[in-house]
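Box 3.1. Reading complex inputs
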Amino acid sequence: MQRKHSCTPDSLRDPADLMCPERLGALKQTRLSFARLLIDRMVDEGWNVRLERVDIDEEGVGRFVYAIETPSRRFSFGVFSRTSSDNENTDRIIAQEWDMWAFLCEGEVSPEFMEAQYEELPKVIEGRAGPEVLIWVRANRSSRFFDHVVDSLAAGHQPDIDFLSEGGYLMRSSGYYGNGHNATKMFSAMDDDHPLKAPYLPQMLAVYMLRVFGYDLAEEIAAARSSEAVSLDDDIKRYLGTGNSSGVGCIMYVVNHPRQINAWLRAREVALARAKGNEATNADLERFTEVLARAKQWFSEDNSDTNEYFMSKDRIAEGLDRIERTVETLDSDGTTLWKRLCTWAERELEAETQEVLHSLLLDVYPEASRGLESALITSEKTDLVPEMRISTLQSYIDSSYQWALDINLGEPGAQRRFWYRSVDNEEPRIGIRGEHDAEEYELPVDIARQVQGLKRDLQEWSTTDTVAEFLFSHPEHRSTVERIQSLHGLPYAEVRGNPLDEDFVPLYFISLLKSFWGISKTHPKSMGWVRGTFFQGAPLASELDGEEAPYWTYPSQPERADQWREDE
Amino acid sequence: MILSVREVHRLSQRCFWAAGCSEANAKANAKSIWWTESYKGSGFTTLHTLLDELEELDPRAMSMRDRDSMTSLIDSKSQPVVVSSTPALDLSCAQANEHGIGVTHATTKEDDDSLPTLGHVASHAAERGYVSAVLYADGSGNAMTVLGTPMQPLPLIAETELESPPVSYERLLDVIDTGVHGRRQTPLTQAMFVNPAEDERHSTADARLLDRLIRQATEPTGDGRVDQPGLFVVCIDPSHPAQSGEVGNVVEGFVRDREAAFTEVFDPDTITDRIDTLLHNGVEVEREVWRDIFEFSNGILAPPFEGSEEGAGFGLNELDK
């Protein structure tokens, strides 16, 4: 039965609640996350992913070429595999050595093209990919897990799944370079019917291909070492994903892409409002119980350390357990069950558990997200409106930036930090004001401070003056004025926080982006650095069969089979 | 070597930023560079030529000499066109929005290497919905006029280089020099209707006024010279109640009729194709030019200092210890 969805603006969350950093840091992956959109597309359209050429030695040094066939277009994923560097931190931007380089391109790969990519890929800044190339990626093997898998397979048995589940991946990327970086193809150069024409889909496909490559590499090395080697079990392959490391550069992305952040959050909020507006049928309740149970088990099995920044996974599992016990006991009040449940959760549970609940509701009602995919594409291109009156600009500030005016920048510590980029491969970094020398290179991530400065200077002007006149005298405010003008009416564009504050936690912004990308498993390594896993539970390349995509999030750890280990 | 369109934008913006411009002014200047690259194929080389003088760019150095409802006079304190044109356009747009017509004059520097970006002013005005005429003249006999009118998907832009100041430039300057621009009617009317009408092709007063402006904008004075280099940015809002519907078609009709009189007419369809090609194939630049620009743009990056490693996300917990 086709459901009808209604969604009024007042059914979306108040930006005052949603846009604070702590809440945004609690958001979880959803059906609208890019990794999930890619898998939906790959399965729906029956993409064919196959290893086309491989030439490596027993250390895993050599080349791989994969073919990716979609109904309308052929892509290739070329990999240059090297020996492991065994360096824990080489996935930072400043790294010079990686275990592998790869490219995702349109069309087939000739030997000449492969050679040209081999020459260019190691050059971080100057390297030229070419307009056929969608993504460049560099990655490292997870030394502990990868070696364990190879050793196990070469010994003729499966690896220890309990051990593998601590990490959850064999390959971990250090970044994906596309959309014009290193002369790669720009997103805006893709045709509207391009199979990867949606935010981050080229990156997501490269992430997926790293997963495929990691398994193939491990099996190839094991086979080269021993004629008794076995293949990695499909259940284990499915349970693992691709590792990711993200740092403070995410904060700059969030601040510099407010229109995208608004579009992505709004689509999610519209879907959630639609889902909550459904009357729960018995089948819906059954489905909810099913996905809730999966999530509960997944959180209870996840032993990764959340440090002090996120809730423990056990605590989330406890909250999900309370939801399970509460869902059918809530008194009717004329609203839908899901609205009552979410209201109860807001009162009784922590933010992270509430957001898991929201994510699960979108899984119960997949149709609530339908049609919103196109709303995820937006442009950051803006222009000043020079003819605007000062009175109008002031009203925009008063209506949309009260949060910025309310921040007391005179408090001790409120401006302690500054943000800059280092000459070390342009790595984003944070400095301490007054202590570190790089203050003159400060980047304008200080939206609240900018708005307060603008508001102060506007007071000297007549309300009937124009923005053009004001900016002639105050050109330093041009960026802030254009930002305020162009974001007016976009409630989810501005994160209501102060990145300069000594208590600001960058992890919240990183976690927000990870929820958009579709990372579920995360391990904070510091307050500004997170490792995570993409595609845990996703269908394998052999399972992209053109049927409806299976529900693959929150996979359970595979049961250890008798034949997996012979030595224990 | 090939750069993507995004890299051209990014490098340009970073260069202006490294030179001390604010983020937004750097962005505005970078748009001028990109326009010059996409329309004329010379944006990146123009930026390269400008590198030595970028650190002298400062929009805060400029001052307002005079201002009334339709006219703004900027003393740019020798800032080049790429800097002075941004506020000049903003002011003209704001005045045109209010009164139908906006005229801004800005002095500029001698031997201005940013002159190839001038067309971006007319193009940007047209993107904002204004019909525009941008007139430039200096004391060395260099002069240029760019006309722009809104069209889809891109504006129609026509540019002509002259050997002496355009007649329109001289007449507008006369009105300003005599100080009557703020006292009587519109500055354009005063400047253009000094002679009896001849061969009027339009039925409404505003269309006739614009027609005269652009005709005389493409006519050199012959022996005329200006004391100080400068530019006029004239914007007309075709949707303003003071304007007739006819005014929106004047520039296109004039350019189509007299295409040979222009050094270059940037036809929207041709430019759309050119931009599309650049988007797909990238922008070819000399490696040495790229290297100079890249190294200059690195001025926004902080050199390493003791403790800077801890400011990266990985070691962030140690930053305050």
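In summary: Chain B touches chain A through 52 residues (CB under 8 Å).
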